[in-house]
Amino acid sequence: MAVKGSATVTLSQYRDTESVTRYYKLQSSSLAAPDKPANVKPNETPAGWSKSEPACDITKTLYTCDVTVFSDKTTHVSDVSKSTSYEAAKEAWNKAQTAQNTATEAAKTADNYISADSTGIMVSENKGATKETPSNATKNNVLITEKDVQIRNGQKVVASYGDSIRLGEAVSQHISVDNSGLAIQDGDKKQFEVRTLTDGRIFTDVWLDEGRISPDSGIDTSKVFSAAEIDSVLDSTYYYEEILNLTFPSRGVPKVTLIFGGGNSGYNVPADPSSAIYFTAADQDIAGEALKLVIDYRDNPSGIYIFNWMNLIAIKVEYSIYFTPTTVRIGDGATKDTFINDGTSVNSFKALKVGKGMNREGNWQNDNAFDVDFNGNTYVGGELAVNQDILNQGGQIYTGAITTENDVYARNVYSERPDGTMLSVVDLIYPVGSIYMSVNSADPGTLFGGTWQQIKDRFLLSAGDTYAAGNTGGSAKATLPSHTHTFGSNGYDLWVAKREKGSTEPGNQISGDAKYYAAATGGSTANYKWLSSVDSKGVSDVSQANMPPYLAVYVWKRIN
Question: CB neighbours (10 Å) of residue 257?
């Protein structure tokens, strides 16, 4: 069975919204927010409020409220609220005004401090009626150009910043810094320079023919060779080798090139020992500090004429390094790290170079007073005055003349021979084959080194056409053989007088041919006698010492 229900709804009152009106009130921002209007009648504007939105006034605040009119003519007033759009507009206006003020001040500043022309943009105090430009500036200023930023005194650049930094005027003393190092200069004269060389950089060491070295080039004399010597040696032996000491230890296999003048501009040397010309490492390792250039035409002597060796002007070695060495140069007279000799670019890097300075004529001497290479070897180019001891801890010292008021102690002292090779002073004075004499019995090998052979009981005789060097002979005792002395020969006899019986005056003919003889005293011939071979006297054999006065000494000959 279905159950049905019913109900009745009676509407006693119906009310619709006729309108909603927004009212505005603009008042000082310093006042409190206004109260909500009360007893607002339909279509009646509340006192102090306006239907129209007022113009923006950033010193005031805009409030709003909404009045709703219903169909039964009753009204409803919303709460009063601050206009967010008005506040946003006011904030934007404030910011725009601030920006405008800033721009205005910036324009004034720019007009007073900034000017520009084709030279660049200049910043300086420029408030006068006549505005300065970069080209006619007389005051301190900063100039911005395409390549750098300059700090200037008028037109004079006292500092600049770009690819390099310079502090000081370029024509006088200044400091310059770039990506490779620092230099203190007087104009273009570098008084102090520190440079850092780059890891992986390609270096070119060049050895020059000594006959083509330019005067005062500052060439490192350890990097020279003689084309004439190479030509002469190859012409006689067909084999030549040259040790090339690199400035730095190399990374990988270097490139070695022979540079010729007069036609053969360059020949790349292989590292293949099967070639007639090749290079290898002196220590059997291609990568290192020393290379050996070998020219070997012994199997093909005619091959030496492929090149005119007298025209060999340079040997060039290109290689890269695996570290970052630093070089220091002091004094503009110090030799340059890179210079041009006879059209060839030559490197001469040292860890430290100290120039000799100016000579009496006021010119810089292009030479080093002191330098240190990257192996720690030190070279002194002039006199070295030392008040205290010089201690050598096992290395080598190369020097010219030494003048000292005290003793010089050295294990080995070396000197340069005329051909440029180095020998110890002992080897120069006492080469193999030399003779040493002394009253001291000490073996000279203990004094100087080397191997010596003692020579006993012999005089020394100078070698010549009759006696060859090294031959021996003679006897310590002289033997006189038996012999006679014969007076008179070829039919003539000797006429002699007794003691005190002869005369120095010419006398009569005594006998024989018509000749004058000393006259006998008193005219008698009894005081004269003929001597002939029958009157000879014999000498028997004699064996005995026959020597001049002597001093016995110890004599040694160097044999090794």
Answer: 17
The CA distance from 353 to 372, in Å, is 7
Q: Is 303 helix (H, G, I), strand (E, B) or coil?
A: helix
What pTM does this model have?
A: 0.49
Spatial distance between the Cα atoms of 531 and 496, rounded to a whole number of angstroms: 7
The answer to whether 319 touches 202, Cβ cutoff 8 Å, is yes
Q: What is the mean pLDDT of the chain?
A: 80
Which two tokens mark 429? 């004075």
Give the pLDDT of residue 3: 56
Compute the distance between CA of residue 383 and CA of residue 4 in angstroms, rounded to an integer.
138
**Which position has the higher pLDDT, 400 or 168?**
168
* pLDDT for 9: 57
CB 478 within 8 Å of CB 525: no
> What letter represents residue 534's amino acid?
V
- Tell me the pLDDT band of 557, cut-offs 50, 70 and 90: very high
CA distances in angstroms from 534 to 412, 527, 531, listed in the order given: 74, 19, 8
DSSP 412-453: --EEE-TTS-EEEHHHHHS-TT-EEEESS-S-HHHHH-S-EE
Res 217: pLDDT: 57
* 40-76 CB burial, b ≥16 within 10 A, e <16: beeeeebeebeeeeeeeeeebbbbbbebbbeeeeebe
User: Between 422 and 158, whose confidence is greater?
Assistant: 158
Strand ranges, E, within 246-337:
251-260, 267-269, 277-281, 290-296, 312-320, 326-330
